[in-house]
Structure prediction request, 598 residues.
Amino acid sequence: MYYGSVLRAVNMKSNARLLCRRFLSTEREFLATQKPSLSDLAKKNLVHNEKDGYVMKSPYENISFPMDMTIDQYFWKNMPKWQNHVAVQCGVTGRKYTYAKLRDYCAALAIRLRNNMKLEKNDIVGICLPNVPEYVICWMGSAEASLVVTTINPWYTCEEISRQLISSRPKAIFCLIDNFDVVKKACELAKQPDVKVIAIKTELSHSFRDDMISFTELMNPKGLNLSESSKFNKNTGYDDLTVLPYSSGTTGLPKGVMLTHNNLISNCEAMDVNLPYEPIIRPTTADFQDVLPCFLPFYHAYGLIIILLAKLSLGTKIISIPKYEINSFLDITKQHKATFLHLVPPTVIQLGNYKGAKPEHFKYVRTVMSAASNLAQNDADRFKKVAHNASFFQGYGLTETSPLSTLTPQGLQNYGTIGWPVANVDIKIACVDDPSFKGLAANETGELLVRGPNIMKGYFKNDEATKAMITEDNWLRTGDIGHYDENGLFYISDRLKELIKVNANQVAPAELEGILREHPDILDAVVIGVSHPKCGEVPKAFAVRQPESNITEEDVKQFVAKQVIKYKQLTGGVQFVDQIPKTATGKMLRREIRKLFS
Prediction:
């Protein structure tokens, strides 16, 4: 058995930090016994200075940063404690990997990616996979090889994938056999025919072909000295880039979000702090292991960092679910005696309203976290009737904040709030029209800004977009409008950003507008989000026809549907207009569009 990076040179200073952080301070012991009021904690952590105005600091336990280690070192540091426990298991086929096996496969993959595939440090590799157990091996093996991972939505069309390839230019891509031809076609469209496409075979896959690179052979530890993998990141720093997910930020087309080792570790640690009232995670022991069924996509920052990396680094068992279907999810939750659920508001609403969802499905569920968009109080209350044993809390963040920025105190019954800043994070509410971004007092509305170790390094090869997103003193502009109350709890009420959120998925209007303008019968177009009872929002297009064109709504919808994934399609419809309201500089007035046409 190989424990190379688990026991290798992480300096004594870092080890001391990790050990010390597990013990409550005298103050924390006092808080735990006295259970201070929310307002007391808020007053203690609200600070004011001339430059920043009012800033809310985190009431959660402080963490020492930087951690002085890479994400793979962090991931494996405690693995010997639970090496024989199952790390990840497929909810469909049942195939599974223990932590010990996972460790060996990741080390083997790292060695072969560098030695056999001739990839070099900081080369970019793509992972275009649904939620399968092998995702962990691809990701952590690449990280251990000191490569940078860009996560790709496996349900994308070849055109959508090609756009990400043009931006990120990966040297290799992991995918399922079933998706191999789509990925190869995307490489051709991106004019990158030399990208090495590595195919993963599962029990449900089609036959392996001679033109495919075998993932099974790459991860086979036979004949290797697995300790060799420890040499690849010796000169890698905690502030180096490690993952490159794509997000539209506040506006425009998707951009590569540069997240560092320390960005990821800060969010993993934020999920494992001692909260003022009770801990989120129970420690894994010989007799206990949290079980978490996961359908939230691993290619998304929420699924990748908050679930996969954070939970596996604590010894949790992940049940991977490639695609969500309510009855299957309920069966898996019951069968595996799930103790922890990560959900999004549309799923909470669906489960709360579904007659097939019974308390027996959630009998062992102790903790439920909802994030990605606002959740109404009555929707949460309805869900609690079937998951009545669970503590319920919410989080908020962006891909650009790695992604978590806030968490509600566990046990809080106010489901309208997104909670407090997570450990080591500061948040302020700034007046939208104030170029100094000075923080406002309680109950004043403005844009929410975030600062802390979770803030991205910037957008990949896009300094202009980075400067628009991050201020000179490192405050990240979220584009979300909100306020905080006298208890220091934050609320989101609106968005400055143009993004449309379909369930938990981001849709960039600019992408759809670009596609619409490619149609020969469309002169101009704009896309906005409109309310939808199940999805929260869906895209709706307003289009200007070319003179004498007879193009119909259905023609436009079909044209777009052929080029994008389902959630990006024009479910909200197409409305033809004479002109699109714009500023003198040509910028679309989306708020005016809503007033005039919706």
User: Anything to note?
Assistant: The domain at 500-597 is CATH 3.30.300.30 (GMP Synthetase; Chain A, domain 3). The longest strand covers residues 522-532.
